[in-house]
Structures are given as structure tokens and as C-alpha cells.
Amino acid sequence: MLSNLKEIGQDPIMKLMVEFSQDPRPEKIELGIGVYKDETGNTPIMSAVSKAQAALLDSQHSKAYLGLAGNQAFNEATKHLILGGSGAFDRASALQTPGGSGALRLFVELAKQLCPQARIWLPKETFPNHPLTAAAVGVEVIYYPYLDPLTQTVDEPAMLAALSDASAHDLVLIHGCCHNPTGADITLEQWQALAELAHRKGFMPLIDLAYQGFGEGISEDITGLRLLVNHLENAFISVSYSKNMGLYRERTGCAIAVGSSTTRSELIKKHLLQIAGCSYAMPPDHGAAIVAEILGDQQLFSLWQQELGEMRDRLKLLRLKLVLSLNELGNTQFDYIKQQSGLFSLTTLNIEQIERLKSEFGVYIVAGGRINLAGVGLSQCGYLASAINQVANTN
Question: Which residues form the Aminotransferase class I/classII large domain (predicted)?
Fold first, then answer.
């Protein structure tokens, strides 16, 4: 059996991490890994998370199994956070998953089980795990246009024209906010157009909500999502707390299924639990217990909101500082960066320019040109701008 094993190439982002760690240059900057970093380059534990953990140490007296759906308090709190007060709340069900990726995997597997000819439509620019998940399940991937390279905003006409070919057998994945890798978000008017198109064509929206709170605010970032699910009978939502609570290694996610009724959404949940039971069985509890503690305590919730707001404001300041630093060098090519949201923006740098950034300046970004703005400190924006300007002005 094992004689059939073949070599697998190293993950490009992990490879970049190793190269960066071995680079002795003190001025080096790592913009590849998709995690939030503070001004010192650390990915800190949020104060709200630390306080919640301390409370759990005092109150948690067992590590017994909680069941396939995971932490029920977490599930209800997450459902309230995303859909509370909306028309879809009462016809939605939720279950804890190992990260947002775990929720995505469950939804894609369910689609394949129920409809073997199901396809999944992905934005042309998307998180690499999306097509890998589809391939692992055996679901065909179709890419739809997303980013207008001239304006660096969503190409609404091209997107809607392509998705007009989606059928009632298809999933259509939509980034909930703070699009990865472009930072270009769907406007409220575009969410409305997508809702109307989904209603007309019958396709199933699969909303990947991985960066809630990093755009304009916890509630503001899901205005479009709520508009869409209120307009439709059915929708799937994948929620991740890796970024907005800094629970990366805790693998804390949630799958929310919106159905035409409470009964239908609970039936969807039963099928999702059956799939979960055949793979990871039960999700890890620690991260979910922390989230439940924070969302269930007004003081902790307020502290989390404050901390997340500070992180969001820092990202906006970094975007502005980088653009202004480029402008001081006479470069307006990347002005769009200050208009975008979240951790990421997609540069127009080619592979040779990206390699020059690494070899000549110690600036590490992934192939394709995505940069994580949180990877640079305010004091480093001038150096980064100079490096980008030098490589961007040569072919």
C-alpha cells in the first residue's frame, strides 16, 4: 500500500514561513501568513479571551463529550450574533465545527450527497482551501469573475452575468466580508442583486464569514449577509472565530443552516451531524467554550468589541500610512489599498517582482501578490513603500 506514496510539495505559505524565519536581516517583513499581528509582530491573546479562559478554569469541572453538535451555548450565541433580530433567525440551526473550514467541508459534502451533479461556484480570487475542499469531496469547481483589475473593486456586471448560469443544483460561495485575498467587498446593492439572482435561479448561497468585525464593525459587516438570508428560503453560513477572537489554533467554527422553516433547518442539521459523525465526530471544545463565555457576558462582550475595534482601526491606519508613503514617492498605483477592508489586499506585482522583494528587501509575500497589512508595523511602512515602489517601477 505505502509503496504507492508520492512526494507532495511543501505548502507555499509554510515554505515562506520557514524562509522568513531563517532570514537574518533585521528589516525583514512577513506579509504572507493570514493572521493578525500587533505593532511588535506578535499575534496576541485578546484580553477578553484571557479573562474567559480564567473563568472557565474555575467553572469547568469535566472534559466529557458534549455530543456531535458541540457546545450548545456556543451554537446559540453564534446564531444570535449572526442572525439575531433577523427574519431568518427562527428558521436557522447551528452546530459547532472544527474551524470555519470544517463547516465549509460539511456543507460541500452535504451538497454532494443530496445532489451528485452539484457544482460549486467560487470567486476567481479566493481562499486556496476553497477549491481544495471541493476537490476532496469530488465537487466540480466553476470560477466566477470577481475583481475588476482596473478599479480593484467588485466587477458586478461580470459576476452577475456568470452566476446567471448557476442552477438549482449548485452552491455559490460568497465571502461574507473582508474578502480574502483582495480586500474588495460586495456592496449592499450588490448583495441585493445577488439575493434576487439566487431567488430567481434557485442556487444555494454558501457564505464564508471568516473576518467579521475587521471591516466596519461586528454588525456592519453582516448587513449584506442578513439582507440575503432574509430574502431567501435557504442559505448556508460558515463562521470562523480564528481571526476576530484570535483563536487560530483552537479551531473554533460554526455551521449555520437557514431553511424554509425551523423543521427544515433542523433536518439539514441532522444530515450535517451524520456527516460529522463519520469524520471528526465531535469538535474541540476549548475555543467554543471561550466564545460562549464572551458572547454570554456583557462585560466580556464589550471588551471584545473594544479590542476588535482597536485592531480594525489599526488596519485602516496601516492601509492609509502605506498609501501615503507610496504617494510621497510619486506612486499612486496602489491607492486602492486604502479603500479596501480587512487584513488583505491583492497587489498587481508579478512573480519576478515578488521574488525581488524577498531577495533584495527581505519582504515576504505569497505568489499571486496578496499582502497581509497586519504584517507590517507603522514604523515599517516607509521601508515597505520604498521596496514596493522600486520593484513596481521595473519589469
Answer: 27-388
Rounded Cα–Cα distance for residues 347 and 182 (Å): 8
Closest CA to 120 of 228, 205, 232, 210: 205
Q: Which stretches in the chain have pLDDT values below 70? A: 395
Length of the chain: 395
Which of 314, 252, 217 minimizes the C-alpha distance to 49? 252
pLDDT at position 289 is 98
- Angstrom distance (rounded) from CA 179 to CA 339: 13
Question: Quick one: pLDDT at residue 23?
Answer: 95
pLDDT at 66: 92
Q: Specify the pLDDT at position 324.
A: 98
40 phi and psi angles, rounded to 5 deg: -90, 0
Same domain, 193 and 341: no
Domain end among 296, 325, 348: 296
In a domain? residue 258 = yes
In the listed set 270, 296, 322, which residue is the last one of a domain according to the structure?
A: 296
Residues 280 and 317 in one domain: no
Q: What is the 3-state secondary structure (H, E, C) of 42-91?
A: CCCCCHHHHHHHHHHHHHCCCCCCCCCCCCHHHHHHHHHHHHCCCCCHHH
**Is 2 inside a domain boundary?**
no
Q: Are residue 182 and residue 284 in the same domain, yes or no?
A: yes
Task: Give domain status of residue 3, yes or no.
Answer: no
Q: What was the pLDDT predicted at 395? A: 57
Q: What is the CATH number of the domain that holds 385?
A: 3.90.1150.10
Q: Confirm whether 56 is domain-assigned.
A: no
Q: Are residues 222 and 323 in the same domain?
A: no
Measured CA distances, 144 to 111, 125, 137, 191 (Å): 19, 9, 20, 15
In this structure, the number of other CB atoms found within 10 A of the CB of residue 89 comes to 16
Give which of 240, 246, 210 is closest to 45, Cα–Cα. 246
Tell me what pLDDT residue 350 has: 94
Kind of pairing between the strands at 153-154 and 370-372: unpaired
